[in-house]
Every structure is written in C-alpha cells, then in structure tokens.
TrEMBL record, chains A, B:
This is aromatic-amino-acid transaminase. Belongs to the class-I pyridoxal-phosphate-dependent aminotransferase family. One of its GO terms (cellular component) is cytoplasm. Its cofactor is pyridoxal 5'-phosphate. SUPFAM superfamilies: PLP-dependent transferases (SSF53383). It holds the Pfam family Aminotran_1_2. Residues 163-532 form the Aminotransferase class I/classII large domain. It is found in: Cytoplasm. It catalyses: an aromatic L-alpha-amino acid + 2-oxoglutarate = an aromatic oxo-acid + L-glutamate.
Length: 542, 542
C-alpha cells in the first residue's frame, strides 16, 4: 500500500460562450473530429484526468449544477485532499528527479504482454468470435516503443495499467466513458463528471456513506434489489418503500410520504436519498416511462431529494413485446434510431445536478471486470474521488486496459452501439421465451404478469387469497413459502417476492415470484415454467 | 448490480486429532502430494470456498483463536448474511432449473480468450521474458472444453472469471494464497482464514469500519504512511503516535500510553487497534526484529489490542547492508533458507488470533491488479466477507485469473519463491545505490541515516538545530519547508517527514526526509542525492 501520484485536475478553461453560436451536439460520427481538437491524451503513470478534458463544447453552454453541501454526511465533509498530493505540483519541473513517490518500477511487473481475443463487428456471436475474432495486444512499453521504434501511436500500455492509478480510473477509458455518457444522456447542466468505480455495488455503498448518517431513512421502491437494501441496513439506515405500479415507483406515493413525514413518529429526519432502478427494475421488471421519470424528478425537486439511479439494465431495453404469433419488430436501423429508442434517463433531465447515476459493465460486458462508473455533478464526484483515494484507489488496471482495448481501440463507439443493439435483440428473444412459456403454461386464474420491457426479470403475481391455506388461517409468509417449496420440489427455483421488500414497517398485500430469463436456454425456460405451473395447480387445487 | 451466488462455506470436517501423531508441516515440495488428497477444486460460477478447503492437517492440531465479539463496531455487528443466499441451498438439487439468480450468460461476455506473456523461471528479467517468456492462455470454456475435447484438466477459465464471484475471491487463487500463507507464516492457531480484497488500501478502510466507532483513537507509529492516517480521519478517528527507534515502534512507549490512558482527558475510550508496518516501514524504512515483535505482541495481549499488520514490503527484505567495498552477501541458497531468512511476522506468533494481516501483490507483482488479501481468525474474516458482499463484491476476475495462471499454473510456489528471491536481490542493489550515494555526497555534520533492511524507503534525519534559520527564530515547519524547496530548486524531490506524522497532538522534535530507491535508476539516484547534498550545504552554509 503506497500513495498513488495525486490527482491534480486541470479543468479545461471555459470561455464566455454567450456571444458565439451554440455548438453542435456530439454524435458518433463527430467524435473523431472532436478528439483531434482536444488536448493530447495524458500517458504518464497515474496521470491526472477528468471528464472535462473530454466533454464537447456544447456542455459548457449549459448552466452549472446546484450545490449540495447541505446533503453531505459528516464523513464526506471531513475528507481532505491527500497530503502527499502537495508534492505533485513539482513533478512538472523539467529535469527534476523524484525520490518522492512510492511507485514500484515496471521492470518488476511480470507481464510482458496481454492479448485478448474479442468479437469483430458484426460477428458478435461466440462462434463468429472463435472463427473471425480479433486479437488485441497490450504490450508493456507500447507507448514508448510504439512511437520510437515503429512510428505507431499508442496511448495505453501495461507499464501504466499495472502501476498505481488515479481514483477516476485511467484517462484512456475515462474518455470513452465520458463520450458515451454525452452521446446517450446529454446531461442538461455543464459541470457533470464521471469517475470509474470498483463496481456499482461498491459505488452504492460509497454513496450511502457520502450522503447519510446512522439513523436516517432512505427512499426505495416497495420492492427492490435485496442486496442494495442490505448494503444500507448495517450502516444504521432504514428504508421507506414507495408504492409501485407496472411503470415502477409512483410519484404521488413518494410525494405523500415526504409531505407527511413525521420526524417525531419516525425518529428520523425527512429522507432525501432516493434509490431507484428505473429501467428493468430488479425484481419487478418495471420500466419507468419518460413521463413517469419527469413526474418523479419534479417530486425530487419539491422535496430536495437526491436521485440515485442504479442503471445496470439500461441497455437491456428490449423490442416491444408482440406475442408469439405476431411479426417481430425489426431492430433499430441506425445508431441514432437506437439511441432515440431508449427511455430517457434521469440524468438526461437533471437540470439541477441532483442525480447520481450508477453505471455498470456487468450486464453489457461482464461482471468480472469489476469496473463501473458514476455520473454526477463535479461537486459530488469530487467527494467520491476523495473517498476512493483512501479506499478502493481505482478499479483493476488489467480490467481497465482490457475494456479500453475492446471498447475504444477496437470497437469504438460505433462498434459498441452495434454490440448493444445485438444484446437488445438477444434479450428480446430470451424475454419472449419466458413470456411465451408463461402464456402457455401458467394458470391464469391465479397468475398475472406484464411482459417486461427491459432487464432480466419477470415478475409474476400470484393471487394468494385463492390459496386453500387461507381457509386454514395461514399467513402470507407461510403460503409464499409453501408455493416456493412446492416449486423447488417440482424442480424449479424462483425468488420469493418478500425477499425484495426493504421496508419492514409495512405489510405485504400482494404476492410475487421473480423469474429471470438471463441465463437458462429457451428449452430450459419452457420446462421450468411448465414445472412451476404444475406445482401451482397442485398448490391451488386447480 | 445483481446478487452473486451466495457464499455457503462448507468447512472441512475436523476430526479429533489428539490421538494421532502430529502431521508434518507443509513444505513447498509437499504441496502437490497434499493437493492430491484434498477435495476437488470447485469450478462452478461463484463457487463457495474457504481457506479450510486448502489448509494442511497440521493446522487443525492447534488451538482455536480467541473470540473478539467485544471489539466489533456497531456496523460490523449489524451485518447479516444475504437474504438471496437462502435460496442457494436448493441449487444442489439434481435436475433443478434455476430462474432464481441474476447472473448474465457467458455467451454475452465478449472475450474468447486472454493470453499473458510472463517470465519463465529463472529468466525473470524483462529481456529474458521478451526472449523466452511463456504465453499462458485462459479460454472462455477451458474447464468444459479441456476435459471433454482435449482430455486436459483445467480448473479456471474466463466463463467463471468474467462472471460474478464470491467475496473471498475464486477458489483457484485462494488455494495458492492459503498455501503461501501456511508455508511462510504457519499461524499458531487453527481457525485462520484468508479472504481476497480489492487491494490493501480498501482492506484497511474496511478494517476501520469493522472495529472502530467515530470518536475512537487508533494506535499508529509516530511516523506512518500518510494515506493510512487519511483513511482513518474522515471516519472521525484520531491517531495516537507511538515513539520509534531504528527498529520501529517501541513497546514501552505503547505500554506507557495505554497504561496511562485518561478517557476523560482524551474524550475517548482506550484504543485497541494498532496499525503497524512492521517490515520496511513507510516512511522510516525501519524493520522490527523478531524480538521487538514479540515484545509488541505481549503489550497487545496485555491491553487486548488487535494488531493490524500492513505488510506490502514483507518480501522486500533485503540482504544485509555491507558497505560499498565489502563482498556482497550471497543470495539464499534454497527456498527453506529464504523462508528462514525472513523476519517472522506478527501472524506467525499470533497465538490469540488478534492479528489482522493485510497482504498485497502491489510491491511484488504489480499494483494494477488491485488484488490483495487478509489473513485473520475465522470470526474476523467472516465479518469482512459480509462487508465485501455488499461493497466491493470481489476483486476483478480478470486480475484474479491472470494471477492464478502466473502464480499457480505456471510458477507454482517454487517459481514464486524464486521470483521473490530475485526481487530481494534487485532491491538490495537499489538500496545499496542510494545508501552509497548518501555516503558519498551528504554532509555528515547534519545528515544521519541507517541503511534500511527492507522496503522502498530511506529515512534521512537532518539536524535542523544547526540551520541558520534557528537564529532568526524560524519554526520546525518553516525550516523543513526551506530545505524541501531548496532541494526542489536543485532538481530533486523528496518527501517531508512531517507529512507522515499522524498524531496532531504532539510536537515534532526531529526532522526527516524520505527518499525512495524503488523507481529511479542508480545513476539518477546518485545525481539526485548529489543535488540534495548541494542544496543542504547551501542551506546550512557548509
């Protein structure tokens, strides 16, 4: 454990743009021209960087984010820049020999090169990749050797990836992430920033420590990702659950709870952190429409709430569900069509800078990279960076260079969007298999569902009041357990709805089971749902 | 963000061993025989594992660790096993189809294989690696394809490495780490465990949250790694500094402070967490002798202190310093000699299970892996795992498989020890360059040092009372700053001793500068020290 070279972010100077015409929005095709105009990519070990080095001029025509000083925890407010950082300014002195930092020499990194074999667009399938994939190489000294020996220009190599890095992650991948964020979300304020994270779970843990104090409540959907709630509880936090419909959380319910918050009765101040999974919600599969998000955002403004949008499933938005016999909807014809087809994020409507967007490569590239990122206002991101500097430091450099080689050097934004469209079509087929199986097998007298528009999960409501156990005085928990165990007995494992209920002060009125279509084959899915149907029929005496 | 398959550690059954002869200690050469007797390596996605699967029989002949329930923080005590974990037990049912977990399908991981080119022992130099290094390949489905198609047995592949993992890290690398720990440290209690971490900085942050409450003091060396103190401060912790000599922290000073702790005057309970860097301490370069460690351990027992030993420099223990003209000491002839040459760790004398050992690959393989590990008692490790499950989850799977391929599959323990011996000789040469340069250039009237026995750092004391600024009434801080800036002016960057002082309640009596020999070449080191000497002479009018 040794200090990385400190972060010393030089913000790009923002000139007064009121007199000049508004610049064009960034487009996929416009990126290479814009890159040519920006400053050279920093290629030193643990080089400082920030999204401001990569955002296009249109960003700076927008107003700045509001300040959220009053929302930071005591822990967050106490964080100071690293002491060892103070020495970094001298590193720019020409000819200076540094005996200051504790970075090991790359001559002792036992990796000479790293190769990855990856898909060559449009051949995204495993078969195509095996046959015609591309091998990408990261050498130890590519930056130095490339330009000196081969006249090639490299901006990343193992010498850098294997050493200490900045909390933001390396500039090379941060540029891709920043551009991607601008292309997709076009945040409506100027001083947004990205920082990489050691995965979204960790980002959420850090977010709670940044904003909350022991004893606080946080706002969650009535049903939510169980682990997200379990990240919060040991910190002494409680959850208040917001009612949902098939579009997810209900803004009126949130307004109602916050407007009538009784500090004395609750023993806690009015909550101001909303954790939401707006797209393909886990576990309900619900996706908030644009209109719904705008309504939620308004309530957040009214009560000065910070919205934490956890969006691992954003690019698992699928084609509309059309039923088994209907003609499938053709895939988006262009990248622009694809981007337009996506439900706008909270980030895209965040005029105040009150959204903390948690991004993840887990569902679109792979969970094992343990690389995610956060988008939020500069003020908030700065506090995250101060935290990461003395905790995770930075995501794995090996993961970062593998992602950089794949996403930036090989695919580029265009290839990555092609990959995401391909993923969309694959998940559509998987979702369809599961919904078809439900239509085919499940007893409609007691089972109800809506085909999910995004994500990995299908949420099946069971009309438990029709269960014979009711007459015997059995509770919700008992009947849910019986149905669950009977399904296991029949050879299918689903998740119980009650596992996902974070608010322990309220009673569950409905009963749900969650099924995922992410992993099993369509044959197995059909068989699994058929087994579940059988167990339901026997449970309910149908 | 989605739940990894839950941890469900099946501890190896420990039979009563009192009647049977004591098993032999584990040796490098005995490992393959022992492996052949243990259970099959689990190769499922996010397969549960623990060090108990890999420890040799002698471990179980030892008494169990003490319990430390009274030392856990409220946060640590509040952690519960994951709700979604409860479903895992059913995954063992034969024929069960799981629609339960949210793991993505490997068919969407866009990596077909990963190759790394690494040194072939004994050719460890970068030149030898380029010429005769070995290329190691991890394919996507090696486990399945290897055994089915080629009759080869693989225990790791990308299908697993790229998916979600357990908080402990994957069994494959955990086995190597566990065996390495047993070979080197032979912990004297039975129920020790290892868990991987997303780097030692993160492990330290987590340790503080596991043991301390806001308002507590922690015990640190008088001078310590600045970032370690800065990890603690925002959590509302203060540091009490223990006096040091050239062997590091003084047990009498620690005993004195703890015996006379005045809760009222300090406004805090008596501290019980010691953070120490026993080997090649940062910044002082001091290494505690075995005797010193035993004395410190006794004081820790007396006051029921938990010792957190942060040991990134353990394998940077060097050959004895013999001066420029003396015959160099030959390297250890055998692995056994090498292991014996190492100063015993606190872990190796930890009869109570009160040591939390933070381990790192940063200084011996590379910092960019962001993989470290912790060794501690089962009770303590279990609390770490509960924390990691809802925060970092697991270190990067790509880093893990690269380390596994290199350390286990290719080098094995024998090759890794050769690598560490090679590193020892390299750091010895670097240390010698710096000490020689000091002997050659620095004015002995005002500069004093001891050749470090381990680590990356050289600690130079400057007799600041001889500085002409004293007559002008200048303070310690002012004179330190003048010397520092004068060196920068002369073209050399060192670190100021005051940066490393965590205890803000005491006054600094001496003055130090820290120089590292880790990164610069021997020519540059000589030039840098020559510049520093010049700036000192002009500062002190010599």
């Amino acid at each position: 454990m040794s200090p990385p070279a400190p972060l010393d972010v030089d913000l790009v100077a923002v000139t007064d743009t009121t007199a000049v015409p508004v610049p064009d929005p960034l487009t996929v095709n416009g990126i290479s021209a814009w890159r040519a105009k920006t400053a050279k990519m920093p290629t030193g070990v643990a080089a400082a960087c920030s999204s401001d080095m990569f955002k296009s001029p249109i960003c700076y025509t927008k107003p700045k984010a509001k300040r959220f000083d009053h929302r930071f925890s005591l822990e967050a407010k106490s964080r100071k820049p690293s002491t060892l950082k103070t020495a970094a300014r001298y590193l720019k002195n020409p000819g200076l020999i540094s005996l200051g930092g504790g970075l090991p020499s790359p001559e002792y990194f036992p990796f000479e090169h790293l190769d990855i074999k990856v898909p060559t667009p449009p051949g995204f399938s495993p078969e195509a990749t095996r046959e015609s994939g591309t091998v990408l190489r990261a050498g130890k000294h590519d930056i130095q050797d490339g330009s000196s020996t081969f006249g090639l220009i490299y901006i990343a190599d193992l010498e850098i990836a294997l050493n200490y890095g900045q909390a933001t992650g390396a500039a090379q991948l941060l540029r891709f992430i920043t551009e991607h964020t601008e292309l997709i979300h076009k945040p409506p304020y100027s001083d947004w920033q990205c920082t990489m994270t050691a995965g979204s779970t960790y980002a959420w843990d850090t977010t709670l420590r940044l904003l909350c104090e022991r004893g606080d409540y946080i706002i969650m959907e009535e049903y939510t990702f169980a682990s997200a709630a379990e990240t919060a509880f040991p910190l002494g936090l409680k959850a208040v659950g917001i009612a949902m419909d098939e579009q997810g959380l209900l803004p009126e319910s949130m307004d109602d709870i916050l407007s009538n918050w009784d500090e004395k009765a609750r023993g806690a101040r009015k909550p101001f952190v909303l954790y939401t999974i707006p797209t393909g919600q886990n576990p309900t599969g619900a996706t908030q429409s644009a209109e719904r998000r705008r309504a939620v955002y308004k309530i957040a403004q009214k009560h000065d709430v910070i919205i934490v949008e956890d969006e691992p499933y954003y690019f698992l938005q699928m084609q509309p569900y059309v039923g088994e016999d209907a003609e499938p909807v053709p895939p988006p014809a262009t990248h622009e069509d694809f981007i337009k087809s996506l439900t706008p994020s909270f980030l895209s409507m965040d005029v105040d800078g009150r959204v903390v967007r948690l991004e993840s490569f887990s569902k679109v590239v792979s969970p094992g990279t343990r690389v995610g990122w956060i988008v939020a206002s500069e003020q908030i991101i700065e506090r995250f960076i101060r935290n990461f500097e003395t905790s995770s430091q930075n995501p794995s450099g090996i993961s970062q260079i593998a992602l950089f080689k794949l996403l930036d050097e090989h695919w580029g934004h265009s290839g990555y969007l092609d990959w995401l469209i391909n993923l969309r079509m694959s998940y559509t087929a998987r979702r369809d298999s599961l919904v078809h199986a439900c239509e085919k097998h499940l007893p409609r007298e007691i089972a109800h569902w809506v085909a999910p528009a995004a994500g990995m999960f299908h949420w099946i409501e069971i009309d438990w009041h029709k269960h014979p156990g009711i007459a015997a005085g059995k509770t919700h928990a008992q009947i849910e357990e019986e149905i669950f165990l009977s399904a296991v007995e029949a050879g299918v494992l689903l998740s119980r709805g009650s596992w996902f209920k974070p608010d322990h002060d309220t009673i569950e009125e409905k009963m749900f089971f969650r099924a995922t279509f992410a992993a099993a084959s369509s044959e197995k899915i059909d068989e699994a749902i058929s087994r579940f149907a059988g167990s339901l029929r026997s449970q309910f005496g149908l």
